[in-house]
Amino acid sequence: MGVEGIGASVARKEDKRFLTGKGRYTDDMSVPGMKYAFFVRSPYAHARIKSIDMAAAKDMPGVIGILEGKQLQADAIGNIICGWMIHSKDGSPMKMGAWRPLANDTVRYVGDAVAIVVADSLGEARDAAEAVVVDYDVLPAVTQAVKALEAGQPQLHPEAPNNLIFDWQLGDADAADKAIADAVHVTEMKIHNNRLAPNPMEPRATLGIYDSAEDHYTCYTTSQNPHVARLVMSAFYNVAPENKLRVIAPDVGGGFGSKIYIYPEEIVCLWASKKTGVPVKWTCDRTEAFLTDAHGRDHFSTVKMAFDKDNRITGLKVDTIANLGAYMSLFSSAVPTYLYATLLSGQYAIPAIHANVRTVYTNTVPVDAYRGAGRPEATYLLERTMETAARELGVSPAELRRKNFVRTFPYQTPVIMNYDAGDYEASLEAAMAAADWNGFAARKAEAAGRGKKRGIGMSCYIEACGIAPSAAVGSLGAGVGLWESAEVRVNAVGTIEVMTGSHSHGQGHETTFAQLIADRFGIPIDNVNIVHGDTDKVQMGMGTYGSRSGAVGMSAVVKALDKVEAKAKKIAAHLMEADESDIVIENGELKVAGTDKTLPWFQVALAAYTAHNLPPGMEPGLKEGAFYDPSNFTFPAGCYICEVEVDPETGTTKIIQFVAADDFGNIINPMIVEGQVHGGIAQGIGQALLENVHYDPQNGQLITASYMDYAMPRADDLPSFKLSHQNTPCPSNPLGIKGCGEAGAIGSPPALINAITDAIGNNNLTMPATPQKVWSALNAVN
Fold this sequence. Notes:
Layout: H1 15-19, E1 35-41, E2 47-53, H2 55-58, E3 63-68, H3 69-74, E4 106-107, E5 113-119, H4 122-131, E6 133-138, H5 145-148, E7 164-171, H6 173-181, E8 185-193, E9 205-211, E10 216-221, H7 226-235, E11 245-248, H8 264-276, E12 280-283, H9 286-292, E13 299-307, E14 313-323, E15 353-360, H10 375-393, H11 397-404, E16 411-412, E17 418-419, H12 424-435, H13 440-449, E18 453-462, H14 470-475, E19 484-490, E20 496-500, H15 509-521, E21 528-531, H16 549-575, E22 583-586, E23 589-592, E24 598-600, H17 601-610, E25 623-628, E26 637-646, E27 653-663, H18 670-689, E28 721-726, H19 743-760, H20 771-780
Parallel strand pairs: 1-12, 10-11, 14-15, 20-21, 27-28
Antiparallel strand pairs: 1-5, 2-4, 2-6, 3-5, 7-15, 8-13, 9-10, 9-12, 13-14, 16-17, 18-26, 19-20, 19-25, 22-23, 23-24, 26-27
Helix pairs in contact: 10-19, 15-16, 18-19
């Protein structure tokens, strides 16, 4: 390991501009003639649009133009689509209702966009938007997924009778039923995974620019995958031909999945720029973010877990109803299916598994991937059930898990996944040692002496990252490939530019990707520039989500580096009159092994471009590209242990310690990995204790539309985390890495809820475990 190479805790290069206020975000962008947009949004959860009167608003000061949905439709701008086709178990395709970027007949959630106002200033645009008069015929609304399936409920889309989008299954129902029928013990639970708002630090924004002279469009946007945005807006939404559309995602302040998708605002601002003849910028305010950013989670599930006489799991049966909101977002169909049900084996050898998933329309904002995307839902269901089973069986929750661990690899689960490598017992042992598991009884007794209830909970998670390969996901309904691209350009003086299709929105790519190059060629990371987020600079890429940047994005870089290294060695061998096989690269020099012959890296690069003395037939230059399509998912795994104290007088929960033992395979930058785990655990604690999106069930109004009502975790809600890393390298990518960005959010909620229920002696507790809920559950057993 070098000072700046693989395995080094290098400080993030990009933090200098972020910490000094020099970051360049979409809202920082300004171009000549730029005007400001404000959207007219529905105040109702469900209504027909009878008419829109814009006359008075158009005459207000500063107004450039006001546009509505019928104009958008007349210009043949397409519907927003879901990019992953799911078929019901009867073979019928999912029922995708029409989602217009501007609603022109029916609105289906509070915040559904109806019109756009473009004006000289944001204030003038807002004032004019308030003067637009929309006459609505208000309709009944339904917000809860289970209720939406009931007869007589409001129907959102004519394409989806009873609001059912699809009824899908995975696994062997007969085998699971037999295992349950033959079981010595069956644990049954009903589990709700609460709905969350993503809340990235930077709200969404977009700047649409139409150049009439060139007939060219430029879109600045807060996107996790700008190339996919360009592809979809050109191929499906008919905004602009792909060769005439540039999408730029500059610095992006967090995403957590919510910035994967193409929202109405990007489409409408580009279109409005052409219609009005001016660049159009829109920046979301925080209330708009609560109203319109894709939410996450919101599953209602029932589960049965079967055990034999030796406490080995023999079968698992799960039935889930997933709320997808008013429309199908880009990846929404994949989250409760192939990103959820395929992980229901967890870390355990379960011979028979069956999952049935029904997805439902409701009058709420669309639901899609949020940090973990299906994996947190699967882990919460499985790990709450495992903890409950241990209590019912009267055995240690650690030993019940240990007895059922997968121990031989590769391991084929009954639900598609083929685990390639792991050592689950190593993570369990590390977590138990760090948490002083065996000393808990004494700590519990001490806390009781102070009038406190102390509990301990465990969670053993597994996730699937770097979704792949493209042929496999294509066969399962994905509309795009999930490979990644890279181009490595060595300049004539030896500095290097790396073009990557991955996109950074807080993960530290400009540092970790540079560490790969420093490790390979021995040059300082300050001599390496990472370029991403611009479709005019990087030809094509699939973006960042699902912890794919390392396993997929970096692997593409490695493939390109292999080609650069091979050519550099050929040049060096020719210049030093040596055999190519004898050339080694060390400390920024190319050397002939066993001799004192050396050439500095920059001199070989210069030779490639002066081209005065190259090997016969070799082209000048030193630039190579590569695409990488993984052969399998990667499978990070770990064990989390949480210890809490509950105040029985108030129901307040205090986290005493939180231990995380993770296996991420090989690690590029341990400091950045620890930061990712810290952030994930914080979000998981937020879900478990505080966060919950709540709609009024009668009228569909969003009750939690600000931080006054939506509780976020604060510093004093969080303990210091004890982290450790185990390592079973991933065999399916050249770096042996697995991905770390979502693990904390996946493993932490069940560990925390298991600890609280252990403390209060009542297993009937739902997230978020607010003081009121905890106090009520505690007093229900006293």
